[in-house]
Structures are given as structure tokens and as C-alpha cells.
Amino acid sequence: MGQEIPESFSSSLVEELSVCGGDADFKGHKTVTEISGKLYVIGASSEDVDSPLNVRIFNKSTGIWSVPTILGKKPKASKFHRAVLVTDNRILILTGDSSANKFAHFLEVDTNFVRERKELLGGEVVAWSKGSIGEGPIPIVISGPSGVGKGTLINKLMKDFPSTFGFSVSHTTRAPREKEVKGVHYHFTTREVMETDIREGKFLESALVHGNLYGTSVEAVEAVTDIGKRCILDIDVQGARAVRARTIEAIFIFIRPPSFEELEKRLRDRGTETEEQVQKRLRNAKKEIEEGKEGLFDHVLVNDDLESCYTNLKKLLGLDDNIQTRAASVDFKTPSSFTISRDADKIFIESQYNTETRDGIPKRIVLDVSSLKGGAPGRTRGLAVSAEY
Questions:
Q1: Residues 78, 102: one domain?
Q2: What percent of the chain has pLDDT over 70?
Q3: In DSSP terms, which residues pair with 140 in a beta bridge?
């Protein structure tokens, strides 16, 4: 279990922490957690409550401190935090004086994602992942060949359920076109910045198209999830395969035509492409339809009739025409100071207030971590929470 840096730490250890620059970045409250002979020291970078939590690592066998590459969005420190070792590769960070959807974050130190990034980047790597109570609004990946009608189906979902679904805004290295708005149509960036972000695992999928990079960032998906909506990703089969390779939880849906001949007819009826472009789209479509049969997708819908296919899509997503589903929420605020204990898969957060009663702040919060899913570069889902007042 994580703890505050104890007085039993030798003076030389504390001195080395200062010399290597680790302590210089930590102002006030810190915790230390030991995993496989390494001490993971977590603390605020300044006394400002909005400062992020930073990480330094001390290798007990070599006596060397290191500053790891930190992936994922760093949580805000608040005034107080506790660290709990959940597994041999993941630390749960609980922050005080926080709302229910912001108090739990996970620091991954040796998961598959972290090991993958270590090989690419070299040196020590850790990754932050936001904890999500229950399943949360799980993203939806929708793929299908050009002309199959997936764009029309997605637009109908967005129109009929505006408070349930949202789009992630993609990144691109191409220049903005006339009337395109940054952050609305695309996040426009440079090739150098995007290539660095791809190496650091900040993108779920990316592709080089006509000399420009396009991709879906983790942050763009999280921005939709943070406002309580289910993020829809309209991407090709290659992109869906890249997302599936991540630990991110998502529903994968493939829209296919009733026949290849019908798809060709729809493409030609649009009258928006040259013959060369039509042939290219047909070649790509044939490959995508074959890949859609390989078990990559959780569900396959045939768009032989738009309204019928849309009805099946809504049923698949558990939607009712008159009810806009939202993820169940838990509403509370954590104490500004608390103690923690653990019994098997249950973690107990006890308020350190004595007889004082605080509205909306539980005396005890119980976390069940037995059903965790996902993780960096997405969210860690499956936290079960109950509060006692």
C-alpha cells in the first residue's frame, strides 16, 4: 500500500532526492509506493491546488533516481492524496476534496501499454489513466466501406439522441481549408508534433493519407466522455484494428452492404467521384468487407434498408426512441483528509473529521476494484463505489 514518505527514510535518500531534482518538483504532500524494488514517489509540482501530480522513481538496487516519461493526462494534485497498490503494475491514486468522477486515477508502471512505450521511447515510462465508476459511457467504433451509408446512420443517431452521443474531433497535419474551424472540424497540428504524440501513445489510431497524417487522439475521445456522452468514432477498418489493439473499452460495429453490386450502384449513383476514384473505392471496399468477417467487430449490420438498419442499430445500443440513455452517476465529494485501508478487493476511505458533519461528504467510501477493465491510454473502468454518511 502507498504511504506518505516516512521519517525512516535515510537522510542520504532524502538528500539524493533533492540532488536529482525529484524533491525540487515536489512541494508539500508526497506518497511513496514500492513495486518490485522500485519506489514510486508521487507529489505535487507546486503548492497550487491545480498543479499536476508528478512522478519520480528510485531504484533500490542501484541507488539511482530517474525521471520517467509520463504519458496520459496528469491528475490535479488537490490538497491531499493517498496511494494504494492495486496490482503489481498499477497504483490507485485517491485525491481529497474531489468530486466522485475526479477522485480516482491509476498510475500504470508495467502494463502492456507501458512496456510497449518503453521499447519505443527508452528509459522509464509511466502512464496515467482516469478511473471510471462502473462502465461509464463506452465509445462506439463504426466502420464500413465508402458508400455503405454509415455516415447517414451516425447523423441520425446524433440528431435523435443529441445528449447521448458526441463526435471526437480528429487531428490532421494538413492546412485548414476555407471555412474550417480549428477544434470543430479538425485539430490542426504540425507533422513533428503529431509524430511525437503518436510515439508517446497519445493516439488511438492514425494514418498517412495523401502525404498528411490523420488520427484520433485519446484526449479527443476523453473530451466527449468527460461531458457524459458516448463518443462515436467513424473510422476505417485499419483504424478500428488499431483501436482494438489498445486496452480501451469500446463497441465495434461494422456496416456492410447487402451485396457488392449494390454498393457499386450506390457509389455510382452519388455522382461525386471520377471513374478512377470509384474503382479505387471499390477495391478498398472489397478488402474491408473481407476484413469485416474476421472477428474484429462485435456486431455486423447489413444496410439493405436504411430505416431497418437504423432500428437494428438502436436496439443494439440499447436505445429507445423516447428515452435518451445516460450513464448512471454517483454523486459525492471526498473528504479533504482521509485514511485508507484495504481488505482483499475492497478499499476503505475513512474521513478524518471527528464529530463534524459535512454536507455531501461521506464518512466512509468503499471501493471495489475486483472488476477493473481497460486502462491507459484510455480509462480504467469498473470501479464499484458505495458511500456511507
A1: yes
A2: 86
A3: 232, 251
